[in-house]
Specification:
Number of domains: 1
Low-confidence stretches: none
Distance between the termini: 77 Å
Largest sheet: none
Mean pLDDT: 83
CATH topology: Helix Hairpins
Radius of gyration: 46 Å
Number of strands: 0
Oligomer: single chain
Structural class: mainly alpha
Number of helices: 2
Length: about 180
């Protein structure tokens, strides 16, 4: 019984450890995602700054209008491509973040269920242990009573044996005295 309980507890502890490791991994992924969001936001800011700079140069210089217009159009196209790429990466990261939060919640619920199961098994084990200890105490009490009864019966037997021995000795003495 104790081996089964120990095995169950070991299994629960092992599963809890695995769940905790998965939670740590999810936290690490979350940090990486947040860092990637920061980097993407910096790239987006840089892209906005480049666009603003190009727009300012265009306003300041009418002589270079065509060159700047082409350059600006090129930068705008690149920016659009970058922004589209940023949107796709951001959407992917947000989806990954949602999935990791969902998995974290699922793991947390499983961990809580395992803890509750372990507590239930521990309570059942404690109840059985208390019951067995009570039965053992009862058996010990019964054994003590039996030993006391045996001791007193032995004393009675020894007394009776002693009395019989005395009677036998008396009887033998009478027989030998009668022959003399």
């Amino acid at each position: 019984m104790q081996d089964v309980t120990t095995s169950l507890i070991s299994k629960f502890v092992s599963e809890i450890g695995e769940m905790q490791n998965r939670l740590i991994e999810l936290e690490r992924i979350k940090v990486e995602i947040e860092e990637e969001f920061g980097r993407l936001n910096r790239v987006e800011e840089e892209s906005r700054a480049a666009k603003a700079s190009l727009e300012e140069q265009l306003a300041d210089s009418n002589a270079k209008n065509e060159f700047l217009s082409a350059s600006l159009e090129h930068e705008i196209n690149e920016r659009k491509l970058v922004e589209e790429e940023l949107r796709m990466v951001k959407a992917s990261l947000e989806e990954h973040l949602v999935n990791s939060d969902t998995e974290k919640k699922f793991l947390s619920e499983n961990l809580e269920q395992e803890i509750n199961k372990r507590k239930s098994v521990e309570e059942e084990f404690h109840t059985i242990k208390v019951s067995l200890e009570e039965q053992l105490a009862k058996r010990e009490s019964e054994m003590d009573a039996l030993m006391n009864n045996l001791k007193s019966e032995r004393e009675e037997f020894n007394q009776t044996l002693g009395d019989l021995q005395k009677q036998f000795d008396t009887w033998l003495n009478k027989i030998f005295e009668g022959r003399k």
